[in-house]
Amino acid sequence: MTETESEAAVIAVCLDDKHAFSKKLKASIRLLEGLGVAGDAHMGRTVQHRSRVKANPDQPNLRQVHLIPREMFEEMGAKGFLIRPGDMGENITTSGIDLLSLPGGTVLHIGGQAEVEITGLRNPCAQIEEWQKGLLKEMVYKDEHGELVRKAGVMGIIRKGGEVKPGDRIHCTLPPKPWNKLERI
Hints:
It contains 4 helices and 14 strands. It has 185 residues and is mainly β.
C-alpha cells in the first residue's frame, strides 16, 4: 500500500440522533468500529438511511460516516450559497484533502486512532433543493464528457474507532492499484 501525507485536517465534527437534514456541531465525536458515529442516527452495522432500510433493512451499512471538504463550501459560497459545517448532514468536515478524487478503499487515518475506509460518494437528495433553492444542480450535474458529478461528500465505514475533533490531522493510505473510482452509495 502507498502512504501519502498531506496537510489535511478535521475542521468540524457533527452528529444528530434524529434523521434530520443537518447535524449539530460538537467538540468531538467518537467513531465506533463497524458501527459509525456514537449517538448518530445513522450508526449501525446494517443500513440506517430511511430509503435504504425500506429497500432492504439487512444490507450492510456502508454509510456509517459522512465527510465533506470545506473547500466545497467555499466553492458554493462563490455561487451565492451559504453552507456551514453540519448543514449538509456530514459528520466530519475536512480541509486540505480532495475527498471526491480518492479511490474506493482509501483509508483515512484521523487523529491518533480512528480509521475510516471510503466506500463511495454521497448521492445528493431533493432535501438539498428544499434547503437552498438551486443548490441541487450544483451538487449533481453532468460534466463536459457527459459523466455524472456528485459533490455532496463521501461515505465510509469505521475500520478502527477513536475520538475525532477539530484540528486532528488526516493521513491517507491508498489501496493497491488498479484503483476503483468512487461510485454513488
